[in-house]
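During the second year of the project, the team shifted from modelling isolated chains to modelling whole assemblies. The rationale, set out in the original proposal, was that interfaces cannot be judged from single-chain predictions alone. As a representative example for this report, we include one of the complexes processed in the last quarter. Its constituent sequences, exactly as entered into the pipeline, are reproduced here:
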Amino acid sequence: MVHPALLVAPIAAPLLAALLAIAFPRGAVAAALSAVGVALVASLVLVVEVARTGTGAALAIGGWPPPLGIALEADGLSAMFLLAASTIGLGVLVVAQGPFGWTGRETRKGYSFWPLALCLLAALNAIFLSRDFFNFYVGLELLSLSAVALVALDGKREAIEAALRYLMFALVGSLLYLLGAALLYAQYGTLDIGLIAASAETNGPTLVAAGLMTAGLAAKTALFPLHAWLPSAHTGAPAVASAMLSALVPKASFFILVRVWFDALPGQAGPGLTLVLGTMGAVAIVYGSILALLQERLKLIIAYSTVAQLGYLFLVFPLAGGDSTAQPWFAGAWTGGMVHAVSHGLAKAAMFLCAGAMMAAAGGDKLSDVRGIVAKMPLATFAFALAAVTLMGLPPSGGFLAKYLMLTAAFASGAWVWGAVVLAGGLLAALYLYRPLASLFAPADPDRTFTSVPLRTELVPLALALVAVLLGVASQFPYDILQVGRSVAAEAGLE
Amino acid sequence: MIASGFDITVCVLLCLCALAAVTGRDTFRAIVFFIVYGLLISVAWLRIDAIDVALAEAAIGAGLTGVLLLGAFGQMGSADTMAREPRGAVLIALVAGAGIGAAVLFAVQGLPPEGAGLTAEVLAQLEASGVGNPVTAVLLNFRGYDTLLESIVLLVALIGVWSVASETGWGERPGIVHHARAGGTLQSFGRFLPAIGLVIGAYIVWAGSSGPGGAFQGGTVLAAVAILTILAGLVDAPRVTTRWLRWALVMGPGVFLGVALLGLFGGAFLVFPQAVAYPAIVAIEIVLTASIALTLVLLVLGPPREAPQ
Amino acid sequence: MGGDPIIASWLVYGCCGAVLVGLGLFGFMRPTTTLRRVLAFNIVGSGIFLLFGATGYRVPSTGADPVPQALIITGIVVALAATALAVALMLALARVSAGRDEDA
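Output from the structure prediction step:
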């Protein structure tokens, strides 16, 4: 049995650091880096423990087990997502010392960034560990408000406009989700995932509740056609913030969606629902890719790529469900979706951090601005290329592992349409990433000069991109750990 | 309990106020309808035996939210004109609103009529929780983790509000007063102040007679009083860089989190052993209330800005 | 909700909450100003709270269920936080758009 501190640390450490950063801004950087370091170590130990023992770890907060109290629990999925969040979070904060570090004088941006980023990470970890539908709501609000404030941080008109639009989507998404959670409580007298699963049955309130939660969470995950807020928000934010916003934030609402359908209400998702979610995901892949292809700015290409990549997550629903009997390919499809979430997170964070470093060096992020930057920033360019390999799903990256698992499931089940979408998505990613890559690797104009940037802004994205690739090389480990505590539904499929 | 004509009247009035607030052309009037709506909904809460929620709704839902919206209206002035409404978009909103409303109606009437939720469980453990008020027991003990996160949501919102200050405004005092050359804003508040005063009066009477356990919502009343004082120009809001202000803001969540972490020595999180539960919860309640009240005041006052020349 | 005199009071308030949610969502989604959207958001929120609270009053003999009440109080505070942030962003946008802020 793991010590409860391991479950508490990923939430409490960043929160403590956030409080410290508010009260004592001089100490913000040190507090933030050590707190997220603690969270990273705790997540790492959790992953190892979960893998070693083959069981999850649980803690009833306050000694009050559900339904009265709230339970924290780390199964394989939680542990993997925690580790990804803390890895990316630490990387982002290391880079953020540059633009937001203490300069001897308190500034608006430098003061605000740290508490917001720390609360964002704490909210992610809180969601990844929670088993309670109302607690998810509070976590989502903490996440959304910090994310929105980070989008607006630049203070430019476009950024504030994007933040406001983001907030509107996030608000209505939260409310729909909350309404569903309230109906579930009214029906079952509990908010705990496990207890709801034990007594779940098909009836009007349950279906309406699940529908409302799905709609709300889909809006928060920027599922097509509810994606309109994402590109402007992820482009308007400072690049270090975009890295967290694009890589991690939509995964939290997706994570809850997985908990709703695979853990709390197994057997309630009919083929109609899985078809709708899968179709919207497929359209997102195509639509996001085409728009990414049409952009001239690095950050916009990466942001539209997020719209496309988030689409894959929703293919999990038709591939790992929609059939009344358990199918052998469900485990692979479900795991493929989760590996995709993690590897996309790592690669996308690396890309946004590269974009940030290149913008700082080139003074802009138009493809013409960063043309030939490989000569000046070989490491960052290499990191960008590695991240692109993962997004395209080329072997041996984590993206390849994810797409391989999904493809196998698609063809095993005879659902060749979804398989074709996965393949087409990889091809489209290669197309829309070709242009920025060609531009980065092009010979530079001889009289073009770039500003020097700190080495860490190149090393951190390189490390993240390498981890994304390693995920595919060590493919058995992520696969195995994701099976720990995987619900019966993920095994047997949604009905 | 069978619905009386009074209940049905309250509900019809609520829906009419909401309709007026949502569809009315004039924004100022819509906000006024919203405030009336907030006070009416407090009546509804009293009818379903939820006094704690009634107070929170009156103080925050109608009171502070009303102040925020009126303040925003006063400062937006003509910048917030009504956009032209394309017919199709209205239709989509109509279909979505009606569709979701109908689905929820369907769900509500399909709920089991005898669902008692967790009432029995809460009452059974009330003594062990260390507080007498079951709602407070849930807020600060059984689900104290939610409340801890909620207090941090408020702080994040405040940092967010501050962070949209102009570069030159950073380090100044927050507040509408400094901005309020427009007499219109203050005028709007003038119309609104009596309602707030009334709610506060009612609350203080209630709080005085009900003993411990309700102080959590007391934060909002303290906040309302503080805002009135600042708006009346009696006191200036402190500068956002003031050191005591910042420590006071984090004190409540900090103490709560600290006490929660103490449990880790015994292998638990956020536990209150029954022997010390009462004093511990009262202590947390007091600091948390103070921090929340302060955060609410600052949230309503808005970002720091330069004093007018 | 009709005028049926033998309907349970929780159901009246629950249905009222559902109607408020519908009205609020309409107000939120129709083309309108940000301020009105924020107002509509608050109506949706309070409609959800009312519905939730009403379902906690299905067995009046044992009193209202304290758990929804506590969650609603948390929800009301969170809604205020979101409203405050929305208002601040809205005013900041107006300020920056008006060009009164040289450094923006």
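Chain A touches chain B through 65 residues (CB under 8 Å). Chain A has one domain: 4-492.
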